[in-house]
Amino acid sequence: MRYPILIWLFGLSICLSLVSAFPVPQLLNINGHPFRLGKQLGEGVYGEVFRAESDDKAIAIKFLSNREDAENLSVEDEIDALKRMGYWIDDDITARIPYIAFILFEGDSLKNYIEKHPVISLETARNLTLAIREAVRQVWAKNQSHGDVHPGNIIIQEKGKDKFNAVMVDFGHSQSLDDLTSESVSELINDDEQNLNFIVYSLFRHVPKLRTEVFEGDYKDDY
After folding, report:
1. Is 37 strand, coil or helix?
2. Could you tell me which residues are beta bridge partners of residue 62?
3. Which of 52, 42, 6 shows the shortest CA–CA distance to 21?
4. Which pLDDT band holds residue 45 (cuts at 50, 70, 90)?
5. Which pLDDT band holds residue 47 (cuts at 50, 70, 90)?
């Protein structure tokens, strides 16, 4: 009887791993439109992000783990950042399960893109770099820092052979640059810039020619 029990426990553990860390509604009313909850897109310290669909559109919804988290300053900053970017759709941080609804950008994260394309051409690396830099500049243009620039927070949209658009997502660490000293602004922008430069450095390591001619040491995936 030991093996059937072990098999049953293994199956139960898999099922539990597929369940959200906290119960979320399967049907929501957002701005007067019903949305059905779809697959989970990601999770973080304060909650989980899901795809949600109506008959004619799809959006992203971030459910916050509890009201205490929803009422902290970082969530207010995230909502403000989404509004500045024009991505915000709706929010209710006083609901039983607080949420933020925002535009869903279709595409792969840069992390997933590189996992699918571990070897890329120099032209691909160059054009990805231009698209990613432009995405970060768009955040700065709204007078805010992103605060968490990494491959998982960059959505890559392919527009043709070696043609890309990039969008920054996840503004949980974003800060407004309004009313800050020039020194503070420089520090926040420099943090974004340093992370961006590391991403570009890692990206070009996936170009075979540069891997052998420019970079020294054993190659490893920095993502």
Report:
1. strand
2. 49, 100
3. 42
4. low
5. confident
Task: Please say whether the structural domain 22-103 has been given the CATH code 3.40.640.10.
Answer: no
- For the stretch 111-145, pLDDT in tens is 999 999 999 999 999 999 999 999 999 999 999 99
**Does an H or E element contain 136, and which?**
helix 122-141
First to last CA, the chain: 44
User: Where exactly does CATH 1.10.510.10 map onto the chain?
Assistant: 108-213
What are the φ/ψ torsions at residue 149 (nearest 5 degrees)? Answer: -75, 110
CATH 3.30.200.20-classified regions of the chain: 22-103
Is 108-213 in CATH node 1.10.520.20?
Answer: no
Token pair for residue 90? 């709706």
Distances (CA, A) of 137 to 56, 144, 189, 204: 31, 10, 10, 20
